[in-house]
Amino acid sequence: MADNAWSTSTCRGDVMWWGVPGQGTYYWTARFGTYWVGGGVYQRYAAAGFECGALGPPVKPYQWLSEFGAYGQWFSGGAIYYSAGAWRVALGNYGQTAGRLAQMDEPSPEWAETPPDAPTEPEFIPDPPTEGAP
Fold first, then answer.
1. What whole-number distance in Å separates Cα of residue 96 and Cα of residue 73?
2. Contact indicator for 78, 55 with CB cutoff of 8 Å
3. Among 23, 16, 8, CA closest to 123
4. Domain that holds residue 24
5. Which residues are paired to 82 by β-bridges?
6. pLDDT in tens, 61-76
7. What is the pTM of this model?
8. Which of 6, 57, 78, 128 qualifies as a cystine partner to 91, CB 3.0-4.6 A?
């Protein structure tokens, strides 16, 4: 496993990752595609065990999550969202993997709390893995 190259997860053979030192990681699955996990979301994801923990791999980009009234990101096993000055984890199936949460880039309300360490995707976006992909 190495940064700046696609590597297969040590705990989930269906997940590949591409680390960007000091910024975050791209995660890829055949089912959901490639998503960036960075900033405060990445720090909370790390604390939750990355893709090896209950959250699993990301399934949507960082965005406004109307279900929580907060900015955050959906994962196969729940979400990480920013509320009351902290990144929080909500485990469970909210329909994020079944297509129920089809709305993307939903506008946030004016009162939305903006995280100070929101993910910022790097300018370089790797192509999805082909060699060694599950």
1. 10
2. yes
3. 23
4. 7-91
5. 87
6. 999 998 899 999 999 9
7. 0.88
8. 78
